[in-house]
TrEMBL record:
Annotated Pfam families: Radical_SAM (PF04055), RlmN_N (PF21016)
Binding note for cofactor: Binds 1 [4Fe-4S] cluster. The cluster is coordinated with 3 cysteines and an exchangeable S-adenosyl-L-methionine.
NCBIfam families noted in UniProt: rRNA_mod_RlmN
Catalytic residue list: 94 (proton acceptor), 339 (s-methylcysteine intermediate)
Family recorded in the similarity comment: Belongs to the radical SAM superfamily. RlmN family.
Enzyme Commission number, as recorded: 2.1.1.192
Protein name as catalogued: Probable dual-specificity RNA methyltransferase RlmN
Lineage of source species: Bacteria, Pseudomonadati, Bacteroidota, Flavobacteriia, Flavobacteriales
Broadest EC class assigned to this enzyme: transferase
GO BP terms in the entry: rRNA base methylation; tRNA methylation
MF GO annotations: 4 iron, 4 sulfur cluster binding; metal ion binding; rRNA (adenine(2503)-C2-)-methyltransferase activity; rRNA binding; tRNA (adenine(37)-C2)-methyltransferase activity; tRNA binding
Function: Specifically methylates position 2 of adenine 2503 in 23S rRNA and position 2 of adenine 37 in tRNAs.
Domain named Radical SAM core: residues: 100-334
Anything else known: Reaction proceeds by a ping-pong mechanism involving intermediate methylation of a conserved cysteine residue.
Amino acid sequence: MDIKKKDIRALTKEQLRDFFEKEGDKAFRGNQVYEWLWNKGAHTFDDMTNISKETRQMLEDNFVINHIKVDVMQRSSDGTVKNAVRLHDDLIVESVLIPTKTRTTACVSSQVGCSLDCKFCATARLKRMRNLNPDEIYDQVVAIDRESRLYFDRPLSNIVFMGMGEPLMNYNNVLKAIDKITSPEGLGMSPKRIVVSTSGVPKMIKKMADDNVKFKLAVSLHSAIDEVRTSIMPFNATFPLASLREALVYWYEKTKNRITYEYVVWEGINDKRKDVDALVQFCKFAPSKVNLIEYNPIDDGQFQQAKSEAIDMYQQVLEANNITVTVRRSRGKDIDAACGQLANKG
Ligand code: SAH
């Protein structure tokens, strides 16, 4: 790749229009090129058949299109598809297509590696190498939309930011990608079908509320007791539960959107009655529901999924307190595509 050339998709439509005007062309040419880049997903300037050869060459001389490349695609016995996605600088991230009877969900990455250090997550071991650009996030979604049409005969219906990385540590680019995904010039998807999942960065949760975003929020809680949460998610020492709680109350007051808490129950870590009671208390601060996720082992055996009695206890106590709870089974485990398993094993 020529490092002097700029990634053309980093330009807004206005900037592209300005560029063409400065080149002595019509600003309208900017709209045409923009449409090729975003609506039609052009991978090369030569794809742009209604643009003159000279103009295409001029674009070639000035810009690159840093498209992602799906390097390896694995299909699980349960239908889940995992893409290993190669970026222009040869780094790899993973994204997952999760089909159910009625929907297709894309699980996308927001960073290469992750800056957080959750003890139970395989991605945490990669460290954060860099943030993804908006177009690299958008491309993952487009790739999965294509696969959904190809294999399941229907377009993508939902997106979750639950792949590699902490989306709120790459907030601006995630927001730009979502803008593109939801705009009629991109995929035209409803923001209500998008979930951003965070380990809980209080300042950024408040910023999202101030920005009046329309997508949904999920928080990886895993424990409502500071001591326990810090032992499994060390950054909780910096952002303790009280500050998270305050940010979530702020979020709800501004957006009126209820929050989903993601929660894994591990043996000997958070499988006691006191753990459930703390969760019940935490859920009372803002309207919320709890998603109990199955644990996907990541090799070293330090963590173990709690016994089913513990999970039943969680379910009963939460329901008795009128808190909605769902128990989510893992998908794609055989190809390391399940929650917390994305670690570029290939
Ligand atoms: N950084 C974001 C999004 C990525 S993780 C976040 O923390 O929310 C997506 C979800 O998978 C999170 O709820 C995370 O806690 C959970 N997870 C991580 N490792 C897991 C594992 N080994 N088994 C099950 N869930 C896991």
